[in-house]
Amino acid sequence: MNEHKPTVTEADLHAFADGLLPPERQAELEAWLIENPQDAAAVAAWQAQNDEIRAMFSPYAISMDSDKNLVLKIGKTSIGQREVQKRNRLMMMLAASVALFLAGIATGRFAPDLFARPELQLTAIEALPQQAHSAFVVYASDVRHPVEVGADQEAHLATWLGKRMNVAGLKVPSLQKLGFQLVGGRLLPINGTPGALFMYENATGQRLTVLVGRNSGNTTTSFRFASDNAVETFYWIDGDLGYAVTGEISRDMLQQVADECYKQFSS
User: Fold this and answer.
1) What is the pTM of this model?
2) Does the pLDDT of residue 116 top 50, yes or no?
3) For an engineered disulfide with 190, which of 26, 89, 213, 225 has Cβ 3.0 to 4.6 Å away?
4) Would you report the helix, strand and coil content of the chain in percent, each value rounded to 5?
5) How far is CA 105 from CA 52, 59, 63, 94, in A?
6) What pLDDT score was predicted for residue 35?
7) Is 165 left (phi over 0), alpha (psi -120 to 50) or beta?
8) Domain that holds residue 25
9) Residues 162 and 208 in one domain
10) How many CB atoms lie within 10 A of CB 191?
11) How many structural domains comprise the chain?
12) Pairing status of strand 231-247 against strand 193-201
């Protein structure tokens, strides 16, 4: 007997990320994401993007306690009822416009003046720690399949990921002197292009990840730091590549790991 497996489309994944699925479908998607880590990483990235968009526009979300009374008062007359219907249609059109506007922001097709403002512009260097955080949360907690290629195939891992990223001589950093052994690595989409994720673990079972992705801006930055609850990230850009080291370890240790990775990647 063939076991029935749900069909999951990209639209389903977006609906899950937005919290729009009915309860029974929500449970199916949760089970699907456990078995499909690449989809789980994409959903986590979309949810992080949703949080950023909501935070960006939260200063403009203003309501008043009198709003409800105003609607009730209008609804007491037939003219008011027509006005309510007109208002509802207007609100639906406005909601659709906002949705289209936000989608345009994601693709860079709308609001160039808005994104010209430095405080609202999400550049590649700003997106890097978000993607590193999402990848760490999804894969570092996976017990059975945290990586695609294990540490026993380190040479193959470096060659494979370097070829996919079009990076000659891509290195897998050695962190043994800091107490972390290589678990392995995997291919990840980073800013729409192939990227690499290396995972490490110490004797107590703590894990950290090193992410490497393409930087289309071809810029260089110093070390920067991002924190999301207990997850810490050090990240930097060096020419056409961006790097991020992420883990639930002390900031001091993570800084040492970042320094060591920088030395090895630059040599």
Assistant:
1) 0.55
2) no
3) 213
4) 50, 20, 25
5) 12, 17, 24, 16
6) 86
7) alpha
8) 10-58
9) yes
10) 14
11) 3
12) unpaired
